[in-house]
Amino acid sequence: MPVDSRSAAYITSIGRNTGLHPDFGAGEFDGGPIGIPYVVVDGSQPKVNVTFDIDDESDIGPYPIPANPPIEGGPESTGDRHILIVESGACKLYELWSAYPQTDGSWVAGSGAIWDLNSYLLRPDTWTSADAAGLPILPGLVRYEEVLAGEIRHAIRFTASRTRGSYVWPARHEASSITDLNVPPMGQRFRLKASFDITPYPRNVQVILRAMQVYGVVLADNGSNWFISGVPDDRWNNDELVSRLRQIIGDNFEAIDSSSLLIDSNSGQARQP
Predict the structure, then answer these.
(1) Is position 45 within any domain?
(2) Would 127 be classed as within a structural domain?
(3) H or E segment at 84?
């Protein structure tokens, strides 16, 4: 893919000398899992009503939220509190942001999105999801099973502290008042340069870095610079992840122009070579 004409400016905006940080791992931090967890349910899971703060850009539901679902940051968290649920039989993904249980069994959330996993359909244009870019969260997370299998076959979600108030395909939403063209928009894709030698790194880290070279990383939310998202798992080696990924800095990446992959602006399907 061609390098974006503003690649150097985007990298500078996020941090040329700032290292990657795995925002996932084993164990707990401040009483909650390290990363964004998810749960799989089947069609027997009762669905509950959810009331949304951003109700005009949320899918009403109901949502198949199990008792005591895994919540980003843990049940006492005051952070993003994402809840991700896969309904296996229906092949649907339910995602909530800022979700809080109510005494009557219902939930209140900032926003929510329901994704048909048999479809390429994106959110309506300008709509948020459970993520600021209007993208699904789960498909962009690093999962231990993928690393164990030896290959991650998708782009990886990441955050930056400053994002432009615009978005590029396949993103559908922005969350900023910044108009500076040297600041990256939501949905901007970056890749680890092909010239970066990943062979000195441990096997599990190599799998992650290879995905960043082949599929890249996608700017999906406001947050700390170069924070890479993943699923918590007690099999992660936290020391290995943090110490080795932080050695890869912004200058090892380049922004790419992925517009040639676009088939339909309302579809996430990508043109194949």
Answers:
(1) yes
(2) yes
(3) strand 83-87
